[in-house]
């Protein structure tokens, strides 16, 4: 059975998509079978996996509304060697259209159950909002990975996310846990980064992943080539860090 993880943080631009795409590619390098679910109407993870988001025959949108299933809609990222449930701006409409449907928070969970046997990991890239889409991600997952930049405002907003996760755990999904906080875009030359990083370790202990993702321009360049950074430049520091993070996740799920 697949272990399902949401990559979530309602702050925009904190590295959710970069983390989802590169963790997927890193896990694939470790011979894990991976499905990446793009749950963001921006479709950045779809593009980053090398899939053209225009003109999708079926996407996360149709799956959420029950008009298609995951096995039909999924595509292969040849660059990343994982499968993708792709999305584009159509998905924004689902937010409204789902309101009147049964099981509106559990649409994704129910859809993923059908492909559970096909994967070791299912990774869900959430949009930057605590919306009905993100709620579907949280209801479907065993755990949440929270990417964070080590900057002054990093902890701002974290309590909203943690409270939402607690509520989902209490009312909708008892499996859900915070797997960990992932420090991303880390710049070791900045004293502030070091300080915030140390603070996170103090407050959250082993909920902070050991792996730290450095700021690395190759990770930022890779999407314009339709490739995960991990495959675009495997020897870069960013790629190496995401492969190490993949290995850390493989170890973590053994204890789950
Ligand atoms: P959104 O909230 O809009 O979905 P996000 O949280 O998914 O954003 P990303 O799109 O992954 O964030 O990253 C935001 C920007 O930062 C992108 O331009 C990305 O290329 C860049 N970026 C992410 N991680 C790194 C890194 N480790 N080093 C350098 N650039 C990075
Ligand atoms: Mg994103």
TrEMBL record:
Lineage top rank: taxon: Bacteria
Presence of the UniProt keyword Hydrolase in the record: yes
EC numbers, comma separated: 3.6.-.-
Residues covered by the AAA domain: 3-178
Matching Gene3D superfamilies: P-loop containing nucleotide triphosphate hydrolases (3.40.50.300)
Entry keyword set: Hydrolase
MF GO annotations: hydrolase activity
Enzyme class: hydrolase
Name of protein: Sporulation initiation inhibitor protein Soj
Organism (species): Duganella phyllosphaerae
Record gene name: soj_3
